[in-house]
Design the sequence.
C-alpha cells in the first residue's frame, strides 16, 4: 500500500548573524546550512494496517507525511502510495487519501459543517448514495447530529476535531494520515475519535498512519509503531515488544511538606533514581520525582517506602511517555 | 467541472454568512454613488461638456464604472496570499483540484452575490432617480455584458499574479496597495481614459488595465461602438490569454518551489 525506501529530504536554511549587522549582511549575502529533515527512511505498510509514527517534535514526522501526501518532493529516495508516486501525481494521489492536521482546519470557517461536507462530496466526486450512507454512519459514531448546522467558527475544539475527522474519511480514502488528531482534547472526545478510527479501519480497511504524543492513542489503535528521531528510523516493529523492553520505567512525583531533609529511604536505595528537575521548573518547589523500573519494584512499594519516612502532601504516578521511550532508545539503542 | 460550480455556490453562501457585513456593502455602494452624483453635477455646474462628454454620459460612465470597480480590490489573489501567509495553502494542495481554478470560480461566486446585492439595485436606482442612461443599442447591451465578463476574468488573473508572488515575498501588502492605486486610475474606474492627457492615453493603451473597466463601460455608453467595440474586445481577449499564461507559468514555478524547498 505504502512503499518508502531511502527517503531523504534536505532543507536549506538561511543562516543569519545576530543583531542589526547580521540583518544587513543577510540582505546582500546569505549563508546556507543544509538540514537533513529526513534521512534514508524506509518502510512498507500493508493495506489496512494502522501504524503509529512517533518521534519528538521536529523529528521529521510531518516532513515524511508531507512527502507521502505529495506536497513535498523528496530530495532522494522512492515513495509510492497506492501505486502512485505522490509528488508526481499530486491531484491523482489526493483523491485516494484523507488527512487531518490537528493544528489546521480543512473545513470552511464561515458556513455550516453540513455545507462543507456537501462541497467535499463534489470535490471528491462521491456518489450521492455513498455520501448519505457515510454521513449517517459518521453522525452516529462521532455524534455529529447537533453540529451539522453550525458554522465551524462557532464550534469548540473537540466538536471541530470530530467534524474534521469525518471530513477526512468522507470520500472513503484508502489511506488516511492523522497528524495529532487528539491534541488538546478531553478524554471523552479522544475516546470517540479512537472508536471512530477503529470502526473505519474495520469497515473499509483504511490504512492509517497516526502521529501523536498521546500514548493512549497508540495503545488503543496501533499494533505497529515506527519511531523516528533526527530524521532517522530508530525502531520499526511491534508496539508490545518495545513496551516490554523500554516501557518499564515509571516515575512517581511526590509533593512534600518540606523538601529540605529529603533522602531516598533505605529500602529503596540503589533501586530508584531521583529525576533531575526539568529546565523550566522552579528549583524551590517541594516536589521530588523518583524513577524506577517496574521489573524490580511496584509503584505501591515506592509510595509506601516514601510515605513511611516523609510527610507527603500529594503524589502522582506518571505513565511512560513516548518521549521517554524515544530518548531511551536513542541513548541505549534498540 | 461540477466541483468548481459547487465551489462558486459555496462562496455565495459564505458571502451571505455575515448579514450585517452583507448589507453594509449595499449601504457603502449607495453612499459611493450619491457622492459620484453630486460630485459630477457640481463639476458640470458651469459647463455643458468635458472632453466632449455631456453630464448624462459622464454620470452614466461614473456610476457603471464604480459598480464594476467594486470587484477589483478583493480578488482571488488576495485569498491566495492569505492562504500562503497562514500556511493553509498546504491543505489546499492536498485536495484533488486545481487551486487557481478554484479561486477563480469562488470569485465568480462573489461576483454573482455582488450582482444581486449592489449592482442590480444600484442600476435600478440610477435609471430611475439619477438619470443614468440605458445602453445605447441592444447590440451595445449584449457586448457590454460580454466585455464586462472578459474584463472581470482579466482582473482576476492580474490579481492572481500578485497572489502567487506571495510565495516569494510572503507579504504583498505594499504590492497590493500599489496595484490598487494603478487599477483605480488606469482601469478608468475613476475617470474615463479619454480624459487623460495624450501621452497618458497612449501609455494606457499599451497596458491591460483599461480593458477591465474602461472598455466595457465605454461600450455601454456608446463611446465604443461597432468595429471599435469589437476590436477593443479582441484586445481584451488577448490580454486575458497573456495574463492566464503568466499565472499558469508562475503558479507551476511556485508549486515546484513549495514542494521542493518546503515553502
Sequence:
Amino acid at each position: 500500500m505504502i512503499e518508502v525506501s531511502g527517503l531523504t529530504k534536505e532543507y536549506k536554511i538561511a543562516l543569519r548573524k545576530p543583531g542589526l549587522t547580521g540583518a544587513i549582511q543577510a540582505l546582500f549575502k546569505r549563508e546556507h546550512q543544509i538540514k537533513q529533515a529526513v534521512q534514508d527512511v524506509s518502510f512498507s505498510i500493508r493495506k489496512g494496517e494502522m501504524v503509529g509514527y512517533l518521534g519528538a517534535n521536529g523529528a521529521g514526522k510531518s516532513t515524511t507525511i508531507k512527502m507521502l501526501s505529495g506536497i513535498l518532493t523528496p530530495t532522494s529516495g522512492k515513495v509510492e502510495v497506492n501505486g502512485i508516486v505522490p509528488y508526481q501525481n499530486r491531484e491523482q494521489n489526493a483523491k485516494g487519501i484523507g488527512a487531518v492536521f490537528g493544528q489546521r482546519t480543512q473545513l470552511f470557517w464561515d458556513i455550516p459543517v453540513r455545507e462543507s461536507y456537501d462541497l467535499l462530496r463534489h470535490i471528491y466526486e462521491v456518489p450521492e448514495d455513498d455520501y448519505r450512507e457515510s454521513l449517517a454512519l459518521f453522525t452516529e459514531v462521532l455524534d455529529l447530529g447537533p453540529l451539522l448546522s453550525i458554522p465551524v467558527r462557532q464550534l469548540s475544539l473537540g466538536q471541530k476535531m470530530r467534524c474534521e475527522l469525518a471530513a477526512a474519511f468522507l470520500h472513503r480514502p484508502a489511506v488516511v494520515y492523522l497528524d495529532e488528531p487528539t491534541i488538546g482534547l478531553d478524554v471523552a472526545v479522544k475516546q470517540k475519535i479512537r472508536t471512530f478510527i477503529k470502526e473505519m479501519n474495520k469497515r473499509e480497511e483504511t490504512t492509517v498512519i497516526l502521529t501523536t504524543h498521546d500514548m493512549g492513542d497508540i495503545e488503543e489503535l496501533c499494533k505497529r509503531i515506527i519511531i523516528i528521531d533526527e530524521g532517522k528510523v530508530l525502531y520499526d516493529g511491534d508496539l508490545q515488544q518495545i513496551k516490554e523492553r523500554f516501557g518499564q520505567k515509571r516515575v512517581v512525583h511526590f509533593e512534600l511538606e518540606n523538601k529540605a531533609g529529603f533522602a531516598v529511604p533505605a529500602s529503596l536505595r540503589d533501586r530508584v533514581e531521583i529525576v533531575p528537575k526539568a529546565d523550566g521548573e522552579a528549583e524551590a518547589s517541594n516536589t521530588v520525582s523518583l524513577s524506577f523500573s517496574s521489573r524490580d519494584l511496584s509503584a505501591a512499594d515506592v509510595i509506601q517506602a516514601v510515605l513511611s519516612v516523609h510527610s507527603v502532601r500529594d503524589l502522582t504516578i506518571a505513565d511512560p511517555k513516548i518521549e521517554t521511550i524515544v530518548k531511551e532508545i536513542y541513548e541505549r539503542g534498540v | 467541472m461540477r466541483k468548481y460550480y459547487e465551489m462558486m455556490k459555496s462562496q455565495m453562501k459564505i458571502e451571505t454568512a455575515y448579514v450585517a457585513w452583507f448589507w453594509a456593502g449595499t449601504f457603502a455602494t449607495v453612499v459611493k454613488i450619491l457622492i459620484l452624483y453630486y460630485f459630477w453635477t457640481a463639476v458640470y455646474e458651469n459647463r455643458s461638456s468635458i472632453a466632449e462628454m455631456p453630464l448624462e454620459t459622464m454620470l452614466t460612465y461614473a456610476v457603471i464604472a464604480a459598480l464594476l470597480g467594486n470587484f477589483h480590490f478583493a480578488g482571488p489573489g488576495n485569498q491566495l496570499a492569505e492562504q500562503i501567509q497562514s500556511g493553509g495553502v498546504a491543505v489546499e494542495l492536498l485536495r484533488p483540484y486545481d487551486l487557481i481554478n478554484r479561486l477563480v470560480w469562488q470569485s465568480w461566486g462573489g461576483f454573482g452575490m455582488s450582482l444581486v446585492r449592489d449592482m442590480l439595485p444600484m442600476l435600478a436606482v440610477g435609471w430611475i432617480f439619477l438619470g443614468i442612461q440605458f445602453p445605447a443599442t441592444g447590440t451595445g447591451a449584449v457586448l457590454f455584458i460580454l466585455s464586462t465578463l472578459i474584463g472581470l476574468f482579466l482582473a482576476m488573473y492580474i490579481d492572481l499574479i500578485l497572489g502567487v508572488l506571495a510565495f516569494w515575498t510572503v507579504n504583498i501588502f505594499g504590492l497590493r496597495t500599489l496595484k490598487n492605486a494603478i487599477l483605480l486610475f488606469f482601469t478608468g474606474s475613476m475617470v474615463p481614459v479619454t480624459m487623460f492627457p495624450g501621452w497618458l492615453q497612449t501609455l494606457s493603451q499599451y497596458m491591460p488595465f483599461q480593458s477591465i473597466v474602461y472598455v466595457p463601460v465605454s461600450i455601454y455608453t456608446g463611446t465604443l461602438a461597432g468595429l471599435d467595440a469589437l476590436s477593443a474586445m479582441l484586445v481584451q481577449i488577448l490580454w486575458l490569454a497573456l495574463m492566464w499564461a503568466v499565472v499558469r507559468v508562475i503558479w507551476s514555478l511556485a508549486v515546484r518551489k513549495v514542494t521542493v524547498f518546503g515553502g
In short: Chain B has one domain: 2-256. DSSP finds eleven helices and two strands in chain B.
